[in-house]
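Shipment paperwork, digital attachment
Item: protein structure file
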Amino acid sequence: MNAEFELPLRVYIEDTDAQGIVYYVNYLKYMERARSEWLRALGFANPAFWGEDRIFVVHSLTASYRRPALLYDDLVVTARGAGHGRAWFGVEQRVCRSEELLCSGQVKVACADRHSMKPVAMPAEMIARIFSPA
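Attachment content:
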């Protein structure tokens, strides 16, 4: 359907606990970075805003942790569009070390009016870019 974006990252000491294992919430930070860079690569200069009146916010997410990432591991974090509705789009994400899946997640991103914070329609241009064939 659409191409998978890849963002290489390295694990640093600030990401880990005393045993050198990545603290669980940092996987969500890695996924956020990959989503932001993916949208920038699609041509959206400021992925959190659309014009003056719309913003994009995480509505919900799930994460499945399989294996720990360790200090100084080289990781690849992916993002790919995974469905959409009138006021949201979904993103499938993975955090891998080489070919080994460490964590997977699904994120629902909602489009909201910047002032009222109520849901509004996704920009058609954004949906077209996210879900265009590779």
